[in-house]
Specification:
globular; 5-stranded antiparallel sheet; 26% strand; 3 domains; GMP Synthetase, Chain A, domain 3; homodimer; alpha/beta; Rossmann fold
Amino acid sequence: MTVRGAAGPSPRAPYGGSRAASQTLPEWLGRRAYLTPEAVALIFGDERWSFRELDHAVDHTAARLWQEGIQPGDHVALLGQNSVEYILALGALMRLGAVAVPLNTRLSPEEIAWQINDSDAAALVVDDEHLALAGKALESSTSGAGPIAPKVPLIPLEAVASPRPPGEAAPSYPRRSRIELDSLHGIIYTSGTTGRPKGAMLTYGNHWWNAIGSGLNLGGHRDDVWLAAVPLFHVSGLSIVMRSLIHGFAVLLHQRFDPALANRAIDQQGVTLASVVSVMLSRMLQERGGRKYPPHLRAVLVGGGPVPEALLRRALDLGMPVLQTYGMTETASQAATLPPHDALRKLGSAGKPLFPVELKVDAPPGEVGEILVRGPGVSPGYYRRPEESKASRREEWFRTGDLGWLDAEGYLYVVDRRSDLIISGGENVYPAEVERVLESHPAVLEAGVAGKADEQWGQVPIAFVVPKSSPSHELAAELIAYCRSKMARYKAPVEVHFVPALPRNAAGKLARHRLRELLTGDDGRA
Amino acid sequence: MTVRGAAGPSPRAPYGGSRAASQTLPEWLGRRAYLTPEAVALIFGDERWSFRELDHAVDHTAARLWQEGIQPGDHVALLGQNSVEYILALGALMRLGAVAVPLNTRLSPEEIAWQINDSDAAALVVDDEHLALAGKALESSTSGAGPIAPKVPLIPLEAVASPRPPGEAAPSYPRRSRIELDSLHGIIYTSGTTGRPKGAMLTYGNHWWNAIGSGLNLGGHRDDVWLAAVPLFHVSGLSIVMRSLIHGFAVLLHQRFDPALANRAIDQQGVTLASVVSVMLSRMLQERGGRKYPPHLRAVLVGGGPVPEALLRRALDLGMPVLQTYGMTETASQAATLPPHDALRKLGSAGKPLFPVELKVDAPPGEVGEILVRGPGVSPGYYRRPEESKASRREEWFRTGDLGWLDAEGYLYVVDRRSDLIISGGENVYPAEVERVLESHPAVLEAGVAGKADEQWGQVPIAFVVPKSSPSHELAAELIAYCRSKMARYKAPVEVHFVPALPRNAAGKLARHRLRELLTGDDGRA
């Protein structure tokens, strides 16, 4: 398989000396279908798929994608909500040796167009629900202001992926039977510090080692069922599917998160493991109303940003074994997780790094500093972003930009996510990206964006704007609407504050940490 | 670290394309002591060691070995029975970056001297029990007929390894904090087809991938305790220790196998996993007298040669979840293991390959052929044996020499171990090695050795000898005694049959499979 875009660091020539040439393994789904064909691979609604059935359906999906012109090495964008078909498409891309580019369904058409272009996608596979959005994205050049529309074919997901294909063998296609761990599995976009998202490259090895590290921490039970109510287009959801193929447990997939359904799945469908973000946990406990969780629930991983300790304690009180985790797209999900036996003793800590991961804090012992990570789970870099890839490293260590400290026993406490990162309901929002959109509005001279604490979402973005002419409540509302039309809704500011000037440091650089000092009684909330 | 003996294939330049440069991981025991310091690592008699305590004692042992002159890269022979000290020495060699050469304690002094020479060992670490044997080995040149005595220092194990060292930090030594998976962990001698044992090189990666594959098959429970009553100088015992460092379970170590103690450990010490060979299983069931095994016993792996189906059935009847395995030194123990859910349905099968292992049979589907194995668990070759290393490969596949077939679902049935291999009580005996010794006796013209079924040991070696002069019962007894003086007792023939000529094929090569046809009423048993 080839990696497009010679400008980016190749996953075959990664950073540092710790990972060089590649280990080859049998292709994971095929292996699972051989080793444990009748084990439950996937539960969705009332239906169950065994690894044998999943393998068969993936074979048909891969053959259809091949008929649609998808070649080994192609980058293929995926736009869809959680579904069996989405998992079939992921499996088919793996089996074809094509590279998955999962897109956030909450992106604006322009953002989608931009990511398709940036990732050199050869096609866009899209589910029924998002056909209109995809259509707009592919036409977005006609609006004039947007990026050039990508010239890629649109492939309807339901037309290539059928969970119950005919019993006969799939038509022939170049089926990959082995996987080199250094080969590229996918490109996942993360909000960018410079105003544009960056495509984090993840190799099969990144997923493999993450799955192994997670398993060494949590153990593996024969009847494990992992609840995936987080999106499959995020590394949090994607990594559950990867772990399932490696460990052979069942994924219980929810189309979207619903606290009552999540709680019911735990009670009635044997869920032993689950991945959530803080806001999901909060809503599940609220819906629960004090009823205890069953003892078969082994661990609930809470990731995607800081979790209030009171919330963790409330969960533990209900018998839910919550484990705070620390990770990001670039570490293929968890880099550190509180071990189950420390859930109570080390409340508030994100635990210790997974077995293959090394983690250090760039500060004297016990003091706060930048968190650095290295190991085989770390992304080889950003697609076509040699500068940003290089800037994210110090020798072979990945610089997370997050702040934290290690206690005397080596437990990690995350103090602050990447200096200016806003985490809203588990989604990352980089202020620079929102500022860029605000400043594209004709009435805006300059803009600064910061996070504001929010009971429901953890944080929400708010904007500070220096207007070109006199400010008004109407303009504030218009700017919010403008942002919502240009980008995913969760990125748009919920408040716009007009200010005469933005705080800047001596070098003239925006001092975002001082933005909130500008807040006055008049909050310009739309 | 360096690998001595440029004549042999380097573990850094292995066979085939599937394994090239190296992945680096944190040193395993240090990592365990960091991740789960208080978890039980080792149980021996009434005593328990946590990973923290083991780590500390290993540090002191490594410092002492360093003081004794052991350098990173040195090959260090280990001669001892199962003990805490033995495990400390293994850990200390890992931490120093030295290479372990575990010696079978049942070898003759000459065999020990030969393996020390062949492995380029820089020292011999030996326990109290085997000081006399080691002394004889190091003096064996003076007997005239033996090999040149190795000029290596003898280091008493108990003088360097103390399970309860002082509380303070160990003196400084070049402590290795990370491990390259392609670096050499040890050299383990296996009986040779050509009359001399061969040193199978095993890398850290071989052990890592074996441990991961084993875990993906058996799962991992927080309270796992693995009974190790097999010798640590065999890959079967050694690999339990390796898996413990990686998975973090407790090893319950027995000095030597005792069926009553093994049964009691299962009943009273929470053993969930165990490794045995056929003769051990048989003796445990005999001692058991029909009493059921407790449900916490998750799996008993039965390896080291064929297991009678009646024995497996008897074990299952008593509630013991026996799982037949197939593996060898060159595959770092298990290559295939029956999955737990198939224990009953596929009785007699050695199951399917571990997740990272590929296995095929060199024959049409369903027919018997040679078993070939490839994957990251396979040894890179034999130390200083380029020819034999090469002969053991076909492209990147390792030729086991064993015969077997795969059923329609892909389950392996082993029909016959390497054509002429005799497996006696789990120990491998190669006829060529015994024949070489017999033919060194002045009264022997030529000799052929074959296996004979034995109720207790599975098989025992018997010899067919063409004498130079007239045969006698006295000569038979003398030849048996002669063999016992020259080699491990289990290798010496239990019967000597005098024959006028040995069966040979057209090319004059000994036809061992026809030896047993020579048996007459007069059996020459000594």
